[in-house]
Amino acid sequence: MEPILQCKNLTKVFPGKVALSGVNLEIGRGRIVGLLGPNGSGKSTLIKMCNGLLTPTNGELFIDGNTPGIETKRIVSYLPERTYLNDWMTVRNLVDFFDDF
What we know:
The protein is α+β, with helices and mostly antiparallel strands. Helices cover 15% and strands 27% of the residues. It has two helices and three strands. Strands 2-1-3 form a three-stranded antiparallel beta sheet, covered by helices on one side. The chain is globular. The two termini are 27 Å apart. The mean pLDDT is 89.
């Protein structure tokens, strides 16, 4: 059975900061997994890449055999601790922003 999450040499680099470096990970179906680590260790970066908010610098990421996108949004959710919406956004801006969900 194909894993629900698969990372192959996954890397994410921001200007001046390597957030993830060569992560190899497989999570099987029906598992509950917690990501533990100090602030800045890449937990949120990995989750944001899983739901398509960020793209990898290098490597591959598969959710249920698919790269993150419209198809995988049915099975991946993300609720940030803080809002990432801008105060200037109108309701129309928000509807457009979340349209593909």
